[in-house]
Write a structure and sequence with these properties.
The chain is built from 20 helices and 21 strands. β4 and β5 (122-127) form a beta hairpin.
Length: 597
């Protein structure tokens, strides 16, 4: 691979290339097998908003209530529940309202290590262990997420077709969706890419399949928002090459001028005169256009450039070559396919030192190269192959208005909770039970707050644990941290509620978010080609090294972070508290960069 270390070349390469967006129309829905009408009814019911209010009621009563309320068939897998040590008379205490049936089932069943499966016209309550023996497969169309010909990747070689990269997508999914259930870590779930159909086959539980579909949709939202924010320019504009004249791939080439001893004696270079002293240019002699196009070797620069003897000799200096490059930059658009150069067409040509940078079709590039070879036998022409090729999308300026992080599933309840956490609040409690404090905040901020009773019990904290606290004007999230840290507790936004749980349990309930970071990782205009086209690793190192370092996988913690190239994004699985710090850190980077621009 040819390499260039000249920073000027890097600057012009980035300046010249303004890549068009390559759009993909892609469904987030798996294509096979489609749900039957009876399955569709169950899936629709899971999205219904509902409520429960039970105190020490048998599990069977809760199931019967939901069965009647939503007019669907719900069954208990009694054998699986017995094997898990759960009876139909297991008491349930839970009050929830204005959230989906799906979230209520997850909240009620998770404390018992149970889950649900969607059957053909019924909902089955079973154990998580048994659910792993009843996996379903789905086939997801993912051509746009696995292509190597996307906007966030380097340009393909001339004439090359985009390949696929399933590994990056599979790594992200297995990291964030049911991470302990995949075959690579001893589980039974599987992810397999099919190259020819550009599809991903996933064998998993129904709950995990929902999360897979949500992740694919979220990756596409982040990609599309960043493409819109970058606002790349279509270099072709209104000009298109004639259909009857195929011109090959469009791209950038470097044409390097070099001196070499000529085969016959040549006159020394006469540098061009300053423009004020240049004699009037004589009009070129009449010539048949067809002959000129077909016989490129007859082209003479004197027809378009100021008088100058352009030839290479042992005495040719670098300054002479720079002068020749400038003359060629002016002459070529008048000699080769005039209508295809700016402003009429998309072609561009610039002289940088003793080098010509040409942005055009292969055919025109070849004609330019042959012209240079006739004038300077020591010249050379080669495709741009940098240390780290630039991505197709034009680098945007870093600005604070860049798209923000995305949850896997945008949910108004989650958004309302996030807004409430930023609201100021007031507390004045003296030896009041934790449950009373939670009820007060729940009513004051009009959000659903739940206690994870099993996790609190394991942590030695009861709902009657006394709280003494007087705080005024602090954000709700700050108040919660001050209260909960004392008992080694924290909170997570999950299943449409704010869940108070132990820090240990929170590590098994990591939240996955997707952070658009293209503006922070792409090589900026003017940077050396030795700089990676997109430097994800530098940003990842900063995040894991400065934000809660012990909580990341490399340090033995639960947190995971992975780049997803085709969306120009970072996918991060972390606790709610760490996510808040990451979002604030990225925003601070953008604000700092914006003030310096």
């Amino acid at each position: 691979m040819s390499r260039f270390a000249n920073p000027a070349l890097a600057l012009w390469c980035v300046y010249l290339i303004q890549w068009p967006i390559v759009g993909f129309a892609q469904s987030d829905t798996p294509v096979t097998p489609p749900p039957t009408d009876r399955e569709a009814k169950i899936l629709a019911a899971l999205g219904d908003v509902t409520e429960i209010d039970f105190a020490e009621q048998p599990l069977s009563d809760v199931v019967e209530y939901l069965k009647i309320r939503h007019e669907i068939e719900i069954q208990l897998d009694n054998r699986a529940l017995t094997d898990a040590g759960i009876g139909s008379d297991t008491p349930i205490t839970r009050t929830l309202k204005d959230i989906s049936l799906r979230s209520i089932l997850r909240l009620v069943l998770s404390e018992l290590d149970l889950t649900y499966l969607v059957g053909d016209g019924y909902l089955l309550i079973t154990s998580k262990t048994e659910a792993e023996n009843m996996l379903h497969f789905r086939v997801y169309p993912v051509a746009d997420l696995v292509t190597t010909g996307g906007n966030f990747r380097p340009a393909l070689e001339a004439g090359a077709k985009g390949d696929v990269d399933f590994k990056n997508l599979i790594d992200v999914l297995s990291m964030c969706v049911a991470p302990t259930t995949w075959g690579e870590v001893g589980g039974v779930g599987s992810l397999e890419g099919h190259r020819n159909s550009r599809t991903l086959t996933v064998s998993q539980t129904d709950e995990a399949q929902e999360e897979v579909a949500q992740m694919l949709a979220a990756l596409r939202r982040v990609r599309d928002k960043q493409l819109a924010a970058a606002k790349p320019v279509d270099p072709f504009g209104k000009w298109q090459p004639p259909a009857e004249e195929p011109m090959g791939a469009f791209g950038l080439r470097v044409h390097r001028l070099a001196a070499a001893p000529p085969k016959t004696a040549a006159k020394p270079i006469t540098p061009p005169l300053p423009s004020a002293q240049q004699p009037a240019q004589q009009p070129p002699p009449a010539a048949d256009k067809k002959d000129a196009d077909n016989d490129e070797k007859k082209v003479d620069l004197k027809d378009a450039a100021p008088p100058a003897t352009i030839a290479a000799s042992p005495e040719t200096t670098n300054r002479d070559l720079e002068n020749i490059a400038r003359e060629l930059a002016r002459a070529v658009p008048n000699l080769i396919d005039e209508e295809s150069w700016q402003p009429a067409g998309p072609g561009k040509i610039h002289a940088v030192g003793n080098t010509l940078l040409v942005w055009h079709h292969d055919e025109v590039q070849s004609r330019v190269a042959r012209l240079i070879e006739e004038i300077l036998p020591g010249g050379a022409s080669q495709s741009v192959a940098e240390y780290y090729p630039a991505v197709r999308l034009a680098p945007p300026a870093i600005r604070t208005a860049w798209p923000r992080e995305e949850d896997l599933s945008p949910n108004e309840k989650h958004a309302a909770i996030a807004r409430a956490l930023d609201q100021p609040t007031t507390l004045d409690f003296a030896e009041q039970p934790l449950s009373d404090v939670v009820d007060f905040l729940k009513k004051k901020h009009e959000i659903e707050i739940q206690l994870d009773n099993r996790a609190l019990t394991d942590a030695g904290v009861g709902t009657d644990t006394p709280i003494t606290c007087t705080l005024d004007g602090l954000a709700l999230k700050t108040v919660l941290k001050l209260i909960l840290n004392e008992f080694d507790l924290t909170y997570v936004i999950r299943n449409e509620v704010l869940m108070i749980t132990s820090k240990t349990e929170a590590e098994s309930m990591l939240v996955a978010k997707i952070y658009p970071v293209f503006d922070l990782v792409v090589r900026p205009v003017g940077a050396s080609p030795r700089t990676p086209g997109m430097d994800f690793q530098g940003l990842i190192k900063n995040i894991t090294g400065q934000i809660s370092p012990p909580t990341w996988g490399e340090a033995g913690g639960p947190g995971e972070i992975k780049e997803f190239i085709n969306a120009g994004a970072l996918v991060i699985a972390q606790t709610a508290e760490v996510h808040e710090e990451i979002a604030a850190y990225l925003q601070a980077l953008r604000q700092s960069a914006a003030t310096q621009n």
